[in-house]
Amino acid sequence: MKKYVFILLAVIIQSVTGSRALAEGTGWMRTFTNNVAETWRQPERVDLYIPAITWHARFAYDKVKTDRYNERPWGGGFGQSRRDEKGNWHGLYMMVFKDSFNQWEPIGGYGWESIWRPLRNEHFHLGLGFTAAVTARDNWRYIPVPVLLPLASVGYGPATFQMTWIPGTYNNGNVYFAWLRFQF
C-alpha cells in the first residue's frame, strides 16, 4: 500500500506543477494549468478539511448494501487556496477518509468554485464548480484513479461546507460526499 500512496503523491505533484507542454497550450487546458500553478506558487490561505458525511442514494442501492456501508467518513486533510480577481476560489488539497467499506481512501487534487454572495453580505457565500483529483481505494488495490467531480458549497467567513456527488449505476456510485473546510 505504501508504494501506491507514493505513486499517488507523485501523480498529484506532477499535476500541480504541470508540464511545460500543457502550460504552453491554448484554451481551457492553459487556463487550468495556469490556475493550478498559481495556486501552488501563491496561496493566500491554509485550509483544514474535515470529512462530514457520505450518503449512498437509497433509490440506487439494495437495502442490504446500504445497511453494511460506512457513512461516517472519519479522516482529515489539508490544503492551500486563493481567491482570484473575480472572487472565485481555487484550492489544492490532500484528504484521507474512511470509505464506504470502512477502509482508508486518500484523495488529492485541485478544486475551483465560482463564488456568489446573494445576501450582499461579505461573509456569506455560495459556490459551484469542480474538482480534478486522484484517488485510490482498497477495493481497487490502491491503484491511483483520476476523478473529475462537481463541487458545491455554502459558507460563512472562513468556514465552508463543501460537497460533491459521485455518479454511478445501480449499487455502485451515486454517493453524496461532504466535508467542512476551514481557512486560516
Features:
184 residues; alpha+beta; Porin; eight-stranded antiparallel β-barrel; 8 strands; membrane; cell outer membrane; Lipid A acyltransferase PagP; signal; EC 2.3.1.251
Structure description:
- The protein is α+β, with helices and mostly antiparallel strands.
- The chain has helices at 2-17, 20-23, 27-41, 63-68; strands at residues 45-56, 75-83, 89-98, 104-116, 124-135, 145-156, 159-166, 175-183.
- It has a single domain, classed as Porin (Beta Barrel).
- The protein has an 8-stranded antiparallel beta barrel.
- The longest helix has 16 residues, at 2-17.
- It is globular.
- The record marks 65 as: Role in lipopolysaccharide recognition.
- Transfers a fatty acid residue from the sn-1 position of a phospholipid to the N-linked hydroxyfatty acid chain on the proximal unit of lipid A or its precursors.
- Its EC number is 2.3.1.251.
- One of its GO terms (molecular function) is O-palmitoyltransferase activity.
Seen as an oligomer or otherwise, the chain set is single chain
What is the domain total for the residues? 1
Helix content: 10-25%
Gyration radius (Cα, Å) is: 17 Å
